[in-house]
Automatic annotation (TrEMBL):
This protein's UniProt keywords: Cell membrane, G-protein coupled receptor, Glycoprotein, Membrane, Receptor, Transducer, Transmembrane, Transmembrane helix
Subcellular location: Cell membrane
InterPro entries, per the entry: GPCR_Rhodpsn (IPR000276), GPCR_Rhodpsn_7TM (IPR017452)
Membrane topology recorded in Swiss-Prot or TrEMBL: Multi-pass membrane protein
Transmembrane segments: 24-41, 53-75, 95-117, 138-157, 181-202, 223-248, 268-291
Protein name: G protein-coupled receptor 55
Location, primary (coarse class): membrane
Domain G-protein coupled receptors family 1 profile: start-end pairs: 37-288
GO cellular component, one term: plasma membrane
SUPFAM superfamilies the record matches: Family A G protein-coupled receptor-like
Recorded superkingdom: Eukaryota
Name of a matching Pfam family: 7tm_1
Length: 320
């Protein structure tokens, strides 16, 4: 999705050439590592669903859902690398690849948002949530997330409009950058989930800190606090630059920014931010395996986990 308003006196060829090298350096290891580790994560959490369904269902279902979205992103990377520089054999194939890419991105964002909300409710209202967090309801939430991202992907079908000689993820039509498409994407696709996650994370940290003098499990709760803060930071670092670059590109495409050097810098920033945000499909794996480790440690104790242990397990379910 580089700068599309190309003109004779403002070339973006050097930016695109630089990004070819960067994408190869970033996407190839991301694809190989992400494919292997996310498949292992799905297998690992699937085994917990079969063997320890009552205790670990909620976390496992959320984790599998997040891993599936990450896997979709991983599978789209080879096509994204190729089709950004080579014309697609037919337009519908280009649309499919773009849909998979953006569905996986926003599916991950929504999943992390619901995980953060679920964790906050588990900390704030543990008795109430224990009755509401049934596997069927968690599965239903994940289904709602899939419906939301698929419905929200409909603007992708008109990304290129009547533009001729386009390549995938480039040469988006003017309608793609219209206010009626851009602002709902920014508000509901990123700003609202980030606000919910920020609120839930800050409240969760505050509640755990207040319990410091009233609990014997402060070491575990302190680990929860650091994990919540780190996950929020990683979420913001991962997705804020991408959506900031979307906003800058919106200004370019609607004539608010016209200086050539600024356009080139925004094009480079947009492509770099999208490229490096994809690395998070691998970073999630560290969270997956930390949760699995906690599960196995709890199983070895041969008793039902305490409320603090459950909070810790659910705390480890966001990015980082």
């Amino acid at each position: 999705m580089s700068q599309l308003n190309r003109s004779e006196d403002c070339s973006f060829q050097d930016v695109d050439e630089l990004m070819k090298t960067v994408q190869l350096a970033v996407h190839i290891p991301t694809f190989l590592l992400g494919l292997l580790l996310n498949l292992l994560a799905i297998r690992g959490f699937g085994s917990f669903l079969k063997k320890r369904w009552p205790c670990y269902a909620a976390t496992s279902i959320y984790m599998i859902n997040l891993a599936v979205f990450d896997l979709l992103l991983v599978l789209s990377l080879p096509f994204k690398m190729t089709l950004t520089h080579v014309k697609a054999p037919f337009p519908s194939f280009c649309t499919l690849v773009e849909c998979l890419y953006f569905i996986s991105m926003y599916g991950s964002i929504f999943t992390i948002c619901f995980i953060s909300l679920d964790r906050f409710l588990a900390i704030r209202y543990p008795l109430l949530v224990s009755q509401l967090r049934s596997p069927r309801k968690i599965f239903g939430i994940c289904c709602v997330i899939w419906v939301l991202v698929w419905v929200g992907s409909t603007p992708v079908y008109s990304f290129h409009g009547k533009v001729e000689n386009y390549t995938c993820f480039h040469n988006m039509s003017d309608g793609t950058w219209s206010a009626k498409v851009f602002f709902p994407l920014e508000v509901f696709g990123f700003l609202l989930p980030m606000s919910i996650m920020g609120f839930c994370s800050s409240r969760s940290i505050r509640i755990l800190v207040r319990r410091r003098n009233h609990t014997q499990d402060w070491v575990q709760q302190k680990a929860c606090i650091w994990t919540i803060a780190a996950n929020l930071a990683v979420f913001v670092v991962s997705f804020l630059p991408v959506h900031l670059s979307f906003f800058l590109q919106f200004l370019v495409r609607n004539g608010f920014i016209v200086e050539c050097r600024a356009k080139r810098n925004i094009s480079l920033f947009l492509q770099l931010s999208m490229c490096f945000s994809n690395v998070n499909c691998c970073l999630d794996v560290f969270c997956y395996y930390f949760v699995i480790k906690e599960f196995r440690m709890d199983i070895m104790t041969h008793h039902r986990p305490s409320r603090v242990q459950l909070v810790l397990q659910d705390t480890m379910t966001t990015r980082g």
